[in-house]
Amino acid sequence: MYRGRFAPSPTGELHAGSFVAALASYLDARAHKGEWLVRIEDVDGPRCIPGADLAILQQLQQCGLQWDGEVLYQSQRHARYQQVLDPLLAKGLVYSCGCSRKEIEESQALMGLNISRHKAAIYPGTCRTGLHGKSARAWRFNVQQWCALRGNPEVHWTDRRLGAQVQNVVNEVGDFVLKRADGLWAYQLAVVVDDADQGISCVVRGQDLTDNTARQILLQEALGLPHPHYLHTPLVLGVNGEKLSKQNGAKALDLSSEAAVCKAMNQAAATLELNTLSAPLNSLTERPSVLAIWTAQWAQREATKIGT
Ligand SMILES: [Zn+2]
After folding, report:
1. Domains recognised in the chain with CATH numbers
2. Pick from 227, 137, 232: which is nearest to 178 by CA?
């Protein structure tokens, strides 16, 4: 049984970029005659905007993307995440870390490391042997130990669109944070637990999240969870050539009129390289039939790529 999901963060309304991921995950689920779930990734509470969740759900409905079942909210799952973290702690696969950002940078310099990742310092492993009298600021996944147990620091996986992928998580990422001392759960843990609990068989999401996949695969292994298939969708670039994001001021999807809804949907379909010339959306009454045609186009194209 195919089960997919769209999992937006309620940090603002959907823009043209995030809508592409929504449409892709919807079409993939429908093409596989599966279920399409929506999950609100509000685990990072301080970044969320009140009401953005409902605005996003309304945008999906305005575009005719109707989800199956109840919407899941990460903010209601703290107890579940702790239940998953505790056994990893007991096995020594998670340890508490008392380092400040400054201390991490200093110990990197001492070790002769000058590596950073997305401007975040790669953790040098200082607290793997204990807190040394400091108090815990975060809980980290012991990537080094898990990769020693699995016998390979490289994670190999295949993206349905991008093909073969490999990442050495020990060298390129390091021991990453699963929970912060202020109680905030890291995206990596929440998403892995939610995908497993919801029975997600295929993750379809924006290409900017590709880099997270190897970490999530390691967590799935350590927790004994199944691996979903992955498909990362093309990004929509702004006029400056950077990916559209809320951080660089991408505007909310304009759905203010029938013509605007049609335009937004046609643009997203074109980004996904569907043949919108043969099946353009011109009115809301055509929407079910056009979505069905796009689903059929998608199914035909993907049939050769995934054996589900
Ligand atoms: Zn530390």
Report:
1. 3-77+187-306 (3.40.50.620), 92-179 (3.90.800.10)
2. 137
Q: How far is CA 56 from the centre of its chain?
A: 16
**pLDDT attached to residue 218:** 98
CA of 105 to the centre of ligand 1 (A): 11
pTM score over 0.85: yes
Write down the residue that tokens 């021991």 correspond to: 175
**Is the sign of the CA dihedral 241, 243, 245, 247 positive or negative?**
negative
Retrieve residue 125's tokens: 């492993």
Please tell me the distance between residue 92's alpha carbon and the centre of ligand 1 in angstroms.
15
Instruction: Please tell me the distance between residue 97's alpha carbon and the centre of ligand 1 in angstroms.
Output: 4
For residue 10, how many other CB atoms are within 10 A of its CB? Answer: 22
Sheet of 202-206: strand order equals: 163-168, 154-159, 229-233, 202-206
Ligand 1 center to residue 40 CA distance, Å? 31
What integer pLDDT is reported at residue 65 of this predicted model?
A: 98
